[in-house]
Amino acid sequence: MNNVVEISEVSKSYEDVKALKEISFEVEKGELFGLIGPDGAGKTTLFRILTTLLVPDSGEAKVLGMDVVENYREIRPILGYMPGRFSLYQDLSVEENIRFFASVFGTTLEENYDLVKPIYQQLEPFKNRLAGALSGGMKQKLALSCALIHKPELLILDEPTTGVDAVSRKEFWEMLHLLKHQGITILASTPYMDEADQCDRVALMQNGKILKISTPDEVAQSFSSTLYGIRSKHRFQLIQVLREYQYVKSVQPFGESVHYADHRNDPDTDDILRYLSTHGVEDAEIKKIDSNIEDTFMELMQQEESHA
Amino acid sequence: MKTIQFILQKEFLQIFRNRAMLPILFVMPIVQLLVLSFAATYELKEASFALIDYDQSSLSRELSAQFQATGYFSLEHKTFDTDEALEELKAGNVNMVLTIPENFSRDYSQGNSVSVQMLIDAVDGTKAGMIQSYGSSIIRDFNQNHIREVQLISSKKAPQLSRIELIPVNWYNPDLDYITYMVPGILVVLVSMIGLFLSGMNIVREQEIGTIEQLNVTPIKKSHFITGKIVPFWIIGMVDLVIGLALARYGFNIPFLGSLTLILIVSGIYLIVIQALGLFISTVTSTQQQAMFIAWFIMVVFILMGGLFTPIESMPVWAQDLTLANPVAWFIKMMRMVLLKGAGWQEIQHMVFVLIGMGGLFYGVAINRYKKTAG
């Protein structure tokens, strides 16, 4: 059996809000799988079902072949979960927290020290500090250590890098790669598109639905039209004017430039520049660029919204 | 079993780390016992009165002197003007106006019946009742002392005092010592506060700060978790009770007629019952603030209707029926029975069974609800 996670047609509603609409996907053994989507997409709900904290309204979810509803007792010991909100004891020290979670899983820090070593080592100088007094990045590392201490086969991380500085985020993903090489399957969610490249496969999620599942490269390349990057000092005006253009398909501000897609198969860039300069944007530069995940995601989201 | 041990370790670590709470937990029983026992008393300390003596005889002066001589009444105002005295009463400067009519001495000496008037400010009903009963007994004593003289002097036959004399003897608390009566009740309140508030609050806290989410994905069973919350505060409650009992015994000289072991067993059972109620509160609330408020509300009702301050027997029948469902009332009753009357297992066993029944009910409902709320 190669699939660690199998989800088929899972739905979940909170009163009249449909949080998950017949979601299906699989995560293979040893994969680093990313769930990407904005707040309210349903990522946390899905994770809570997988971690046996919620029961789905319909559909089936399995972890290592075991049903999350029927066999929740068997699933819990092989699962490591790091909730989106820091959920360790703030009034216990770093070491007390990790030892407590080790003990309730029937293991010890020493037994699995090798597994958590790369992460826990960074915390050891502060091991007597109360968890509540740690910085955001340190808290995340502690939470990851605690989720790992019982050597789980599947690690579920709910937005592990939200609210963490850029350096810590990068470090965090490096640690996840290390863990992946140790054979742990990882399912992580993030609202940051730029973290998608870190995953083996990603699922783009929006409004309780999965819009696309693929490798990050494939997702990036699946943008349906030719994409141009347009730069100008008058960025705001540029966006306004471009949106009025007769062939416009999408305009997205992106860093210093604006990503532009056209309805035509082979757009005339000179025509675009001429149009811009007649409307007051004279310094525009245009060049063809490769699409990234965010472009695809924005496109898929717009399609989804126009369907709905 | 090992899991429970680890959970208990963690709970105690957290409790003993809480620098704000820990001293309170152990200082509270002492302060509560000292303050409440001395302050909450029904004995009349001092009542002030205004005197309108129209008679101005040696007998009338003797009567008013007798009021003052008891030490309970102090003469604040003397006047011949009823309105003025009533103004004083209205203004709250005096608690009572004592009026001795004209010809009081003459009529009394002749063996006629006379009357004096006590106008009592009854805003505070309890105090008014006490002033009345103290005042009546002073007048009765006065009458007894003088009637013989009157009989000798008077040609008429003076009103006879009844030949049957009542000599009340108070059992179990012969001196009607208020502290003896209060302390067992206050010990109950103390134990109830710890039992009801702390366990429940602690569970809600795990929900509020989200740690329950992390616990729920571990193999910890709900029963482990609940045990981990009940046991530490049970121990603290029992320690506090022992401190309180020691203070009652050696500080207040409360008689310990019954068996200490029985007291401890009953208290142990009671604590578990009240903790079950705390557990139930935690399942219907999601923040510590809500839990605190509900626990407080329940506690106030339980205490006021528990026979601590006002006897249950003086409540209306419907309220008396309600107290049957009040664990605090049962426990106060048992404490007083065992400590002051020396009741043994035979006398209180039915009440212990009622408590156990309540505990079973609370746990049943709480655990049932708890399973539904958290994962």
Number of helices, counting only DSSP H or I runs of 4 residues or more of chain B = 14
- Name the beta content range of chain A: 25-35%
| Largest interface (CB < 8 Å) | A-B, 26 and 23 residues
* Series of secondary-structure elements of chain A, N-terminal to C-terminal: EEEHEEHEHHHEHEEEHEHEEHEH
Kindly report the name of the CATH homologous superfamily of the largest domain in chain A.
P-loop containing nucleotide triphosphate hydrolases
**Gross morphology of chain A:** elongated
Question: Briefly, what CATH class of the largest domain in chain A?
Answer: Alpha Beta
Query: C-alpha Rg of chain A, in Å?
Result: 23 Å
Number of domains of chain A: 2
- Sequence stretches where pLDDT stays below 50 over 5 or more residues of chain A: none
- Which percent bin holds the helix content of chain A? 25-40%
Largest sheet of chain A: 6 strands, mixed
| Portion of residues within helices of chain B | 55-70%
Q: Please, could you describe this protein's structure?
A:
Chain A: One of its GO terms (molecular function) is ATP binding. Chain A: Pfam families: ABC_tran. Chain A: Keywords: ATP-binding, Nucleotide-binding. The complex is a heterodimer of chains A (308) and B (375). Chain A is of the alpha/beta class and 308 residues long. Chain A has 2 domains: 218 residues, 3-Layer(aba) Sandwich (Rossmann fold); 67 residues, Alpha-Beta Plaits (2-Layer Sandwich). In chain A, 33% of the residues lie in helices and 28% in strands. In chain A, the strands form 3 sheets. In chain A, strands 6-7-8-3-9-10 form a 6-stranded mixed sheet, with helices on both faces. A 4-stranded antiparallel sheet of chain A has the order 2-1-4-5. In chain A, strands 12-13-11-14 form a 4-stranded antiparallel sheet, with helices on both faces. In chain A, helix 3 runs parallel beside helix 5. Chain A is elongated. In chain B, strand 1, helix 3 and strand 2 form a beta-alpha-beta unit. Chain B folds into 2 domains: 238 residues, no CATH class; 107 residues, abc type-2 transporter like domain (abc type-2 transporter like fold, 3-Layer(aba) Sandwich). The two termini of chain B are 22 Å apart. Chain B is of the alpha/beta class and 375 residues long. The model of chain B has no long low-confidence stretch (mean pLDDT 84). Chain B is 67% helix and 6% strand. A 4-stranded mixed sheet of chain B has the order 2-1-3-4, sandwiched between helices. In chain B, helix 2 crosses helix 9 and helix 7 runs parallel beside helix 10. The chains are: A alpha/beta (308), B alpha/beta (375). At the A-B interface, helix 3 of A face helix 1 and helix 8 of B.
